Amino acid sequence: MVGVLLPLAVVTHRLRAAAGEDRRRMRWLLWAGVVDALVVLGAVLFPSTTLSLDLSVAVGLTGLAVTLGLLRPRAVDIDRLLGGTLVYGGLAVGVVLLDLAVLAALGALLGTAVGERDATLVSVLLVAVVYVPLRAALWRLVRRWVLGEREDPYRVVSGLAERLERSDGAEEQLMAVAAGIAEAFRVPYVGVEVDSADGGRLVAGHGTRPGTVQSLPIAYRGEGVGRLLLPRSGVRAHLVTRDERLLADVVRQAAAAARAGSLAAQLQASREQLVTAREEERRRLRRDLHDGLGPSLGAVVLRIDTARNLAASRPDDADALLRQARDDVAAALADVRRLVHDLRPPALDDLGLAGAVRQQAERPLAPAVPVTVEAEGLADLPAAVEVAAYRIASEALANAARHAAATRVRVRLARDAGGALEATVTDDGVGIAPDRAAGVGLVSLRERAAELGGRCTVSCPAGGGTQVRAVLPVEGGGPA
């Protein structure tokens, strides 16, 4: 025993001063010392004929640890191996010592009263009837105190689900995830970082953050949405394969909660944007009507009244006033047409979506650039989908005219297999440089599609040119 404990104490002392790769090598020696101590302790507590076999195993593991520590210290995660050996070895030794203490106490109490042989039988009976059930419950309590709830996966998952149900808001849900994982795995610190829709990051932590942490990705449907932070060092921080599977199940719930929180934040932001856009549009219409159309019509009324008063005595002046009033009315009609066009392009009602896109294609592009518009399955489209497809196609055609230097442009409007409207604008121009940042026009394309729950992508095919492809869901709106 002294031959094992003395080198173990020396290794532990040297480990405190080691750093870097030397510290990793010393951890291999520490693990070998812990295994040797457990083997020798077992030999002392249970002397048997297998002592030579136990010592052979200890010597073999020591040689293996020294070899790996010197040649391949990173071949195995020694921190995880050392932590698992300390935890499970310590628990096993504690249970064995408790068993021996119970048997010894019963033998001492009953030996003087009923004799050695009868005392042994009674001790075995009492252990089987009373102590074994208590020992199982005590074992569960000790493991729960040391390792948390990881031994009961159902309890961990259901407890986290209950916490999430009681939480309101994205930040409270993340705090519930961090607290649930910390209590389930008995780790001193758990951090949850989630990327928000606006480019920021939501961070929730439980406990005091240590100097070094390990990061585990949180993914939702194959898309990374955040990170889970756990301590890198410490006995409870080391996970076995079963713990990793349980943590993966918990992380999936965390990912769902994070995604739900992110979607809730996006929904709230979208509502605020919709309200803001509506009020801005109302203010613009009010300003245009009050400052533009209102004074123009008021001036027309005054000129008509003046012309009526001058009609009998000065007919020429009255006629001039009426001509000026006519010009003012024509200008007011132009303002009305502009306001109506801003609300919804009239060409959509007059020509339909395909005709309106064909008409729009003739404006920005040079006459030498042929534009082909293909359309099918455009009946009974919701008004919002029509406007979005028209705006996206118009912006894509304008970009092709300004930047592409194309000789041919093709526009295709059709329903896909799911019934959504697919609008594609393809040109054979110079394309877009990979390092070029998206401008306002490209961002507006994506925003218009996202407003309807669709998507818009801009890509450069291998054959050259640029392709703008928007997919707009048709469900949920009334026919145009």
UniProtKB/TrEMBL annotation:
Molecular function GO labels: ATP binding; phosphorelay sensor kinase activity; protein dimerization activity
Keyword Lipid metabolism recorded: no
Record's keyword terms, sorted: ATP-binding, Kinase, Membrane, Nucleotide-binding, Phosphoprotein, Transferase, Transmembrane, Transmembrane helix, Two-component regulatory system
Pfam family, one: HisKA_3
Membrane-spanning segments: 27-46, 91-114, 121-142
GO cellular component: membrane
Domain Histidine kinase/HSP90-like ATPase: 384-476
Reactions it catalyzes: ATP + protein L-histidine = ADP + protein N-phospho-L-histidine
EC number, UniProt record: 2.7.13.3
UniProt superkingdom: Bacteria
Keyword Phosphoprotein found: yes
Protein name, per record: histidine kinase
Organism annotation: Geodermatophilus aquaeductus
